Model the fold of this input.
Amino acid sequence: MRVFPLISALVALSVTLGGTATAQNALDTVITVNESAISAFELDQRRKLLAVFRTPGDLDKLAREGLIDDRLKETAMRQAGLILSDESLQTAMSDFAGRANLTLDQFLAVLAGNDIAPETLRDFVKVGVSWRDFIRGRYTRQVNVTDADVARAMSQTSANGTEIEVLLTEIIIPAPPPQAAAAMAKAQAISQLRSTAAFEAQARAVSALPSRANGGRLGWLPLSNYPPALHSMILDLAPGEVTAPLSIPNGVALFQLRAVREVPTAKIAPTAIDFATFYLAGGQTPEGIRAAQTLSANVDNCDDLYTQARGQSADVLTRESLAPAEIPQDVALELARLDAGEVSYNLTRNNGQTLVFLMLCGRENPAMEGTDPAAVRNQLVSQRLGSLADALLEDLRTSATITSK
Done:
């Protein structure tokens, strides 16, 4: 560390404070992360840096959180033996300045005009670049982006805006005609629940879906995956609230909202959904389920179903490409959870005697035209590495001892 510029910056800080603060005040510890101290000077410098970057929000809060995260990252990287060379750091700082169309010297002059020391930029860039390299080295082998992942992302990618994603828990109560009234009464009672634990317990007890094994919990899914008629119903919920019972053939569906978020990359709602339906005898009996499992094991995509249907009646297999609003609601709910090539056999027809084997062939979206698959793959890798980095940082934060003054 260069001592003289840091001392000069401390003197400049004391002047800007009207002479009331001394260098010793600036060096006072205001936050401790485990055994690492953050000084008042560092906090003030980070806040000024964020101001120069025109960062929105509470700059004092963001400065504190950013410095705490930096200390946690530095500890993890130090334990891993990661060291950024002076040459790499200098290049990274020049690249950073280049984003503002300035040389490094010009950029440092701008910072100096705002009472920001060169060391403040150096430390900011050093942690950012080192953390990126650390995460890549630690997790790259764990990130596997398949061709199917790329195709799915391309079908959902748009150029602008944001997309709403929802985190739901699902229950479908079987409701064949003799049990319809009892199933609806049970659904009405469940719809009054506000506890996620209670709703999950009901899912394990009464749901007919495979998701009952984990309490009916679904992962993040685009709202556009669900039938259009459900969109406003879901968005009207507060976390913990449950939809009114939804009647579907031979069943009643309920959804509890756990969370909702906007993602920075928009996903255009598909103009049409291509899916295949294969009808199997036996319904949800063990024989019917085994037939569905055997069929699933022998097909990889919708085209394979034609071979399986050879020699059978013409109505055993149908393939349709329909606008989302034209798809029956129970079928649309099943398709919402599927990616291309995935299957579902949760539905029945003919009073439960026929099992409905659904396969999603694809979601048609004009936005995929002209998209570079390699660029999409790189973006997916970056997103997944980012998620792993966030999870690691959260673990570090949870196990750390952090005190503030």
Remarks:
- The CA atoms of residues 107 and 139 lie 33 Å apart.
